Amino acid sequence: MNRVLLSLLFVLATALAHAQGDVKSQVSAAISTGNVNALGDLMVPNVDLTVLDNNDYYSKAQAAQILRKFFDEHEPQGLRVEHEGTSKMGDSYCIGQLNTANGTFRVTYFLKKAGDSVLVKQLRIENTNK
């Protein structure tokens, strides 16, 4: 009985790690290309968003508007993930550099399990020269 339970827990943990990896790839791809619609689909209903000087909790619709404006002004040319891991709270995170037509920005995002999904709970796009 203990072996069955242990095996089941291992399978569940592996599935969660795989799901987080898939979402990380999807989020990174959406940021890399400036795909606001795909990014919005991967966010919690009220996301903690920092884009340059805008910093607050926003609905998906508000966050999409802010991100669309940023990507319109700073055309993405690729995201290079430099570090990823798991926070003390158990959330996955990625830190990287977003190259744009107007310079480079530091990007950080955190993922959390929400029901059966893994979604972005926090996204920061900041100047690298701060």
Question: How is this structure best described in words?
Answer:
With 130 residues, the chain is an alpha+beta fold. 40% of the residues lie in helices and 45% in strands. It contains 3 helices and 6 strands, in the order ααββαββββ. The protein has a 6-stranded mixed β-sheet. A hairpin with a 2-residue loop joins strand 1 and strand 2. The longest helix has 32 residues. The termini are far apart.
Mean pLDDT: 85
Number of helices: 3
Q: Please give the number of β-strands.
A: 6
Largest sheet: 6 strands, mixed
Please summarize what this structure is.
The chain is an alpha+beta fold.
List the SSEs and their pairings.
Elements: H1 2-33, H2 36-41, E1 43-51, E2 54-59, H3 60-73, E3 76-86, E4 92-100, E5 103-114, E6 117-127
Parallel strand pairs: 1-6
Antiparallel strand pairs: 1-2, 3-4, 4-5, 5-6
Characteristic terms for this protein:
130 residues, alpha+beta, six-stranded mixed β-sheet, 3 helices, 6 strands
